[in-house]
Design goal:
Blueprint lengths: L3 H6 L10 H4 L10 E8 L6 E7 L5 E4 L8 E7 L4 E3 L4 E2 L4 E7 L1 H8 L6 E3 L2 E5 H4 L1 E3 L6 E7 L5 E3 L2 E4 L2 E5 L8 E4 L2 E8 L2 E8 L7 H19 L6 E9 L6 E5 L4 E8 L7 H4 L2 H9 L9 H18 L5 H11 L18 H22 L6 H10 L10 H12 L3 H9 L8 H8 L1 E4 L2 E4 L6 H7 L8
Parallel strand pairs: 1-11, 17-18, 18-20
Antiparallel strand pairs: 1-2, 2-7, 3-6, 3-10, 4-5, 4-7, 8-9, 9-15, 11-14, 12-15, 13-14, 16-17, 19-20, 21-22
Helix pairs in contact: 5-7, 7-8, 8-10, 10-13, 11-12
This protein binds zinc ion.
The site of zinc ion has 8 residues, from helix 7 and helix 8.
Amino acid sequence: MLDRRLRWTLCCALLSTVGCRCLRASAPTKAAPRWEYTVALGTTLDDLQVLASFPPGSGDVTVAEAAAAPFVRDLAVDSGSTWRSASWPIACDGGCRIRYGFALRRAADTLDDPFLALADRDVVVTPASTWLVRPEQDSDAELLIRVERGSARFATGLRAVGPDTYRLSAVDLGGASLSVFGAHRRVPMEAAGAHVEVIVGAGQDPIGDAQLAHWIAADADVVRAELGAFPVDRLFVAVVRDDAAAHTFGLTVGGGGAGILLRVPTDLEPSSVVAGDWVLPHEMIHVATPRLDADHRWLSEGLATYVEPLLRVRAGFVDAEKFWRDLVEGLPRGLPEAGDEGLDRTHTWGRTYWGGALFCLLADVGIRERTKGRASLDDVLRAVHAAGGNVLSRWSLARWLEVGDAATGTRVLHELHERLGARPGEVDLAALFRRLGVAIEEGRVRYDENAPLASIRRALTVAIARAP
Ligand SMILES: [Zn+2]
């Protein structure tokens, strides 16, 4: 079983932070400008050739990710007559074409960052924001990316709009779905009614295709059991190995398509991966959650932290004792420390993951108490799903709270956010566990069936019968 303390240090981060410029983008009032890219992979992964075309009014153009700048070479601009070498930023007020080479492999080896680029043998996994340039100004532009000579050496979670052609909104470039460059094989599968395209580096076999498919399908089924359907129709999963890692690492993105990166240790144990792994279901709960702005990442991570073990208990993958033990031991890390300014403004690891999980437990218990057990946090998740909220969409926290509270007919979520969002708030965790009737005594989880909220504690971990 994974060590809980270590697991959180390795936990994924949802790319909900799409950047302020993206969030300020204005609503389109006329046909959106189009940024066009033609991308061709040369003989090596350090020979990505990009031709970008921007319409008049584009202003200054530069790299989308500052960290990617050192890997751009042979930068040139064509303002109408001849190509000339250029440096950042490139003035593109009258429209321009820009061409450059990008050293993907060197970027991946140097950065080794799942948010930017990482390599595994002959494959590089990277979001489009790393290797595309863009106008600096806010835009509601549509990106059209054509990939030449991609065939067996390119795969992406971006939505295809034609052969080797993909579409992405400028507001989604930060947090764009993943792309894979290099020789790979595809393991297409259906999981929980969704089409899942799994990409594995050529010649690699992390745990065997059949076991990989079983793993993904089992966790997808857990999420479907909660929501009634898998949250998206299409999911892209890139699986790479990490020789140095002791545990699986996951990352979920949703800009232009839902994608999960799984970086697995080489000694992953196939026979126990479904029962032992918490990372993939955690990521799938991110897939089921709309992207929120950076200040509210605590809710994305809190939901994934709280709901993942809950669903796995209900599915029988882990027992209820482990669920309660992890909460009793873990939730104190989510309590405010000196100087705390509330969940919305205190972005520490503890407050983000465990503080968010505490919010979710309080919400779940609060809704159940207020409705005498007729509603729960499950109804909130299902209502968000029914309203189209998933990683492909971007929501405000206010909308999530509104949809959630409407689903339960209460104001529990709003009231909790009022208490804990902008201020540290008072949470008596010991009293909460006493009321639920759960404690750890002499190393063992003990239940008090006479506790006032014992029935809520028991109900939490019971699978909900639901019409398909
Ligand atoms: Zn996460």
